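Colleagues,

Please find the record for the two-part complex below.
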Amino acid sequence: MTDLGPSQAATTHWRGDQPVHGRGETVCVIGAGASGLVAVKNLREQGFAVDCFERETGVGGAWNWRHTRSPVYGSTHLISSKSVTQFPDFPMPDSWPDYPHHSRLLQYLERYADHFGLREHVWFGTEVTRVEPAEGGYWDVTTRGGRGALDRTQRYAAVVVATGHNWSPKMPEYEGLADYRGEVIHASAYKDAAQLRGRKVLVVGGGNTGCDLAVEAAQQATMCWHSTRRGYWYAPKYVYGRPADQVNDLARALRLPLRLRQWLFHRVLRRTVGDLTRFGLRKPDHRIYETHPIVNSQLVYYIGHGGIVPVGDLARFERHSVELATGELIEPDLVVLATGYQPRFDFLAPQLLGAQADGRPRLYMHAFARPYPTLFVAGMLQPDSGLLPLVHWQTVAMARWLRLRESAPQRAAQLWTSLVGGPDRRWTKAAVKDSTRHWFEIDHVLYLRALQKTLKALEPAA
Amino acid sequence: MSTRILRPLEWAYPPRPVRREVRYARPDTDGSRPPVLFVPGFGHGAWIFTEHWLEHTAGRGFPAYALSLRGHGKSGSAPRTTLRSYAHDVVQVAASLPRQAVLVGHGAGALVVARALARYPARAAVLVAPVLGGVRMAFSVLAGNPAGTLPALFGAGLRPSRRQLFSRELPIRVGRGYASRLGRASTLAQWQLLAPGRLEDPVGNPPVLVVGSPQDRIVPLVALNRAARQYGGAPLLFPGMGHDLMLDARWPEPIDAILDWLDKG
């Protein structure tokens, strides 16, 4: 263990006229959600002292519905099945269903934190306001804790940013939206089915949230329009009697080529759902596995029962109605914008993460900041599977990298150049559409294979 | 230290859930000591630990748990089970405990624990009279007890003899009673003992202790040494005892040594 005694930790540096408390070789983790917790656990496992800062008073991040930034709503369930979603070294209980409810995921993360004794390393109610590079690869982290508390700056050997990327709403721009008199909310403000009951609802957005909310509105609201800009494939949660992602992983295990997997899936959908245009949906303009998968067994079902009326793109908002691209006017009481989220790191200068004018962070494997070998982002991925196993191995790689940097600096420096020197790779074979939504789109098998290689390179020399 | 990340078979075909028997003994005071999970070997159930070791461990301040692998004891039946599902049972129970656990595997249960270590970062692990499998071990067991071993090659259950399991110090009547309670592992898992494959490295780098008896008629001293060497140590030996150290006459000695080792770590 490299826990530092108080004497060693108390060195004070200066940034301008502000004192900076040195924390020695301690690593700072920002956020105690799923990604933050697994980072703390894996860094501790490699023997690092860790300070984790969490602005809320509990663990769980996005999965903790009590948190102001949590996007979950009452009926959120996982859309990837248990076996591809759990941490690889801490399985969910056998007694849980294939697709657990969000409250179970929070329970799972809380148990994870208790099981590995992580809470004692977390400073709750403490928000990170600034992260700035200091000399020697160190980082000055400024935090603000509690009401009226003063800012405090501490110097860390490394920083793992684990603040998530699904909390800052991305708002679409429509003509007349500002003057629209009906109620407009972003999906992040949707919490409970009571918000829909007895109302005419327009759901905008064809992502997983949009489809889930349309189904929810079909069950609860008087009327539901669902606006999507494009045609999508709606993958069922079960095929061949098993969770669909498990079947897909079996196909991956058998190394079936992408084309064959696409053909198989198209065939299953043709035989079960059939022609989507018959339901008034648009024909998908891409092959399956080419965009982030929409997993929803119920959307087409409810369209077939008249609960959802699919409409195309919106043209403009008027004072009391919404005009569709077809020219038709509809009059919803409530508009839910399920238009996604944007990554946001307020405490960090964008160029530190390699971001250019478009604001897109450019990191090696979406995790390692190229110019700064001691700055990492955990969990900034849009996988076609569960996120937790991916962020687990990401943070294992970070911890091992820091270890190697300490034990064999020369080898580490060489390795860094060879690893991050290469061009940006896209960790997906499919021709993913180039929208902000797919910035961090990855294929979990390809990504994990690459991580496996990175971990192998990080092994200490025998 | 190689790490296996891609486990498509695990993702696509997680082992089928079964009812699991878990017995426990809690210490009187809630201290900071880690929970200890005992894993019995083939044919044995959680009961071998509830006889003596479970209470004794709790008496020394460790929350103590013992499970029965599927198809054993009061756990659900599972006729076509392999080592993978046994290891799954261990990881499931370990992850359900309130804190990071110490895994203690006995006999072939040590092989199950060794496999579970690749899937769960245990705080520490103890392999008691470990049957890690392989052809060499199969031959030595076959030579010692052909009548109880040979039929197992053709699908019957392994039937260790009373003299393999216990020392002469244990009263014959008691030994017979224990032997009559033995069950059997699945045929597939028994066959897997012949060629268990290369063990994956443990995750989280836990300290591993090997415990055994040089007079064990199932796991000879060379096998104990080999097992200990694999984990970078030497075995802790208790001369004069049989294979089932937790049931034998001098059962307190090994468990005290194991708990002392845990206390030191």
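The CA atoms of residues 428 and 451 of chain A lie 14 Å apart.

Comments are welcome before we finalize the supplementary table.
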